[in-house]
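Full entry
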Amino acid sequence: MGSFLRSEEMVLSELFLQPEAAYSTVADLGESGILQFRDMNNALNTFQRRFVSEVKTANEMERKLRFMESEIGKDGIHTQKLESLPMAPNSREILELEAHLEKTEGELKEVSQSSIALKSNYVELTELKHVLEKTQGLFAEQEGTSSFTETKALIGDEQGAANTSRARLSFVAGVIPRERVPGFEKMLWRISRGNVFLRQADIEEALEDPKTGNEIQKNVFVAFFQGDQLKSRVKKVCSGFRASIYQCPNTTEERLEMVKGVRTRLADLSMVLNQTKDLKHRLLTEIASKHQGWIVQVRKMKAIYHTLNMFNLDVTNKCFIGECWVPKRDLQQVKDTLANKSETSGSSIPSFLNVVDTSEVPPTFHRTNKFTNAFQVVIDAYGMASYRELNPALYSTVTFPFLFGVMFGDCGHGLIVTLFAAWMVIYEKKLSQSRGGEIWNIFFGGRYLILLMGIFSIYTGLIYNDVFSKSFNIFGSSWKNPYNESTLLSNGELSLDPAFEESYTQYPYPFGFDPVWQLAPDNKIIFQNSFKMKLSIIIGVVHMLFGVCLSVGNHVYYKKKINIILQFIPQILFLALLFLYMVVLMVLKWVLFSASNSLKWGTRCAPSVLITFINMMMFKPMEYDEKNCYPTIYPYQEEVQLGLVVVALLCIPFLLLGKPLYILFKRSSSKKHLLTNGEIQQDNGVELNDIENNAGRRQSRTEEPADPHEEGAFSDIFILQAIHTIEYILSTISHTASYLRLWALSLAHGQLSEVLWNMVLRRGFILFPGFIGCIAIYVIFAIWAVFTLAILVLMEGLSAFLHTLRLHWVEFMSKFYIGEGYAYQPFSFKAILDDEDKKDDD
């Protein structure tokens, strides 16, 4: 919990590795994932690093594995998932793996090229077969015409053209993709001015592209024309439209004989193609069984060499020197790893870790588990916490789902959310292995957050006594009806007066709202509005007070206790004297004024808290009203309120001038001190500039990061303090009003639920009686359930989540959270592999 309250304490260390054990040591450190290495070779580009050749080798191995993966995907083979990730390969295993991948890639390329060549031949023979079969029918249609019976011309056959006496007609037969046929036909008509006669027929079966494996629909065509000039034009058009041209005999006997030969060749080629396909499938199956393991090994090897490129090589001492950030509690684990690797490598000089002092701000690292991780992700999305700053995620584990539940208070809808989250929690091991989309990963990652939101929604729904816009009647009602049946039936505007003992039993409802309010359509919303609005203000003021109080923890930890006097006290006083006092007035009103009390302390004399607060801020005196009620709630109320306002207003100049004047005084006193020391030490040859530089050279690890308010000219400091003072004073008012969104969204959610019930499900019970009503209710319930899930659970839930997020980021965290740190990114194989998997999925 200490790490979750504040970030881990980090230390900067120098890591000395012997060359013999450097690779294996970094591999073990990558498995543990507890070191963030710093690049000590920023002046060198990528190609000037020591292990650039090894990185190139790893990239080449990755390229081969990607090629194998693409071939596996084309063949529809599923790769086997790894039960446990293999370790990073050692030097000998790297050479063996590189040679094996080279050999496997060569075999796969050879088989793939052979398969492509065979498929190309098969497709060409198939197209020729269809050309011969389709043109047989096209020529048969022309046997009755003399012009075509006497035509013997072929493409490239000059003797056929010479033997034609009555008409010199030639033709081109081939195959063209079906989507290119309209453009092909128009182009032939344009180049020949209508002198080319085109006939075409569809090929029923889809042909496979040898390279991509995609199916292509094609057509057989025959273009008839006259003359050599048109022949060359037709060939150019066929080439432009990527049409395959095939030689087709003139006579029917020759075509039939050629078809028989093509079919025989197709049968032989099909047998060879099947054997090649089986061979490739066996090879890919063997590759698929080891592919994931190879990928993990290559990526680990590549990551190790990238990390070693961050080290400096000390030629004198013959060792690698690196710098890294380490969590202080993990130092011993790193030292044990170095000792073990030094023993196994047989090096005479052991590797070791040396902690160094630094004034640099360390990275921020919060240890999380599967429960707290979702809350930490929500906070980090706003800004990474400064080093050792109080972590808002700890308190958000309770406040976030609670504020969500206040806005989403409905037992029914909360139960749906809870069941969905509970399903993800119970089957998290099984669900974590499945790869869903981005939205599913967000839901699954925040399953514990969603579970708490659902539970708190059920709790607040019980307080509101709201379940799908209906109420529970567990304890009965505290209201009693004093009217008889005839009076109730004859008067529709009767009301239950709480002043009468017959209608009110004088004891509160045990838990939540009384269910009788569900039967009060006229003043139910008025009652709920009053309650939820006041409740929102109370929750908001307490939440903001808690945020301001948390700033004390940062001031104390960073040893800036003066900020407690100059910042915290005026801030908390201004917030408490005005807005906490308004909350006190609400509580006093609930406690002191009751229907059973006397006239002056009855509910009719209860003052408006808002009017009282406005009169207090405007210094307006209280007067008796027409009801002859007391103008004040308690004795000396006007004097107390006057004192509260005056003290609150005095906090503004104190907050505005306190810190700048303190900084001015601190600077003047430090200059006098430095001047005095400089005069004393002049005889020893120590200059004043050296004293000033040494005074602020190092910064304690427990001190707060440099505050911009304490740097620069005094005018800049005063302007910055003025901006923050005005921002805090105005935000106190605006943030208090911002918490009214708790009331607004709760009211909107309840009204939408009630409208959906009355307009959909309730009408189904009334409009369709009898047997038809049973069927209608079945359909209407389905519609109501879909609308409930889509609108009230998903859309309203997302809206409440976003508003809760804003209340934490702006209204709560702005009171104490700086969020100017940078994340701790350790060298971890698990994180690297997860990032690579995400890139592959994208």
About this structure: The longest strand covers residues 319-327. The two ends are 36 Å apart (CA to CA). Residues 493 and 522 are 9 Å apart (CA to CA). Residues 144-167, 680-704 have pLDDT under 50 and may be disordered.
